[in-house]
């Protein structure tokens, strides 16, 4: 991924939290038929440096797991930026966004205990705080049938890249204006982008 220095994020703790907050990601592999992608919810094992997910067994993408590298793209808030918001001109439109790219070699998990643990973790991540919270307590025969219909895998992280493009390369006045205009938008993604930009704004050196 092309990452200018002003937009780079290398703090692993920040990148891991971003992946947790935006865990529905794009999983990209390459097989004999070319490039293929699926949209999947991932869990992040920071201690082991591993991503965990599962595919429908009917999805042939798992057959591309041949030891070659895969890519997972985590996408955060993003928004169009109008040059009318800048104080400095001439200027052109751009797009502000935050994303994390993760590379690694996916490996199928066959161990029954590991599979149950991974599925339970995924459910608990998304049920936490709901009222009521659904617990994965299923009849054994039903659970076995459901597990047979998926392929569970892990992807040890070999490389991770973070890009937070949020007008940090603009003047303080331009950054302030962009944040203000996005914050006033009726679009939730614009507001989220404004909040993220405000938390990461860069003050220009005198």
3D structure, described in words:
This protein is an alpha+beta fold and 206 residues long. It has one domain: Pnp Oxidase, Chain A. 29% of the residues lie in helices and 33% in strands. The protein has helices at 12-21, 112-127, 140-148, 172-183, 188-200; strands spanning 8-9, 24-31, 34-41, 43-45, 50-56, 70-81, 94-104, 107-108, 150-156, 159-165. The strands form 2 sheets. Strands 1-10-7-6-2-3 form a 6-stranded antiparallel β-sheet. Strands 4-5-9-8 form a 4-stranded antiparallel β-sheet. Strand 4 and strand 5 (50-56) form a beta hairpin. Helix 4 runs antiparallel to helix 5. The radius of gyration is 20 Å and the shape is elongated. It starts with 7 loop residues before the first strand and ends in a 6-residue tail after the last helix.
Domain module tally:
1
What's the architecture, going by CATH?
Answer: Roll
* General shape: elongated
Q: Determine the structural class based on helices, strands and strand pairing.
A: alpha+beta
- Can you count the helices? 5
* Strand order across the largest sheet: 1-10-7-6-2-3
Order of helices and strands: EHEEEEEEEHHEEHH
Average pLDDT over all residues:
95
Summed up, what is this model?
The protein is α+β, with helices and mostly antiparallel strands. Helix content is 29%, strand content 33%.
Keywords for this structure?
Pnp Oxidase, Chain A, 5 helices, 33% strand, 206 residues, 6-stranded antiparallel beta sheet, alpha+beta
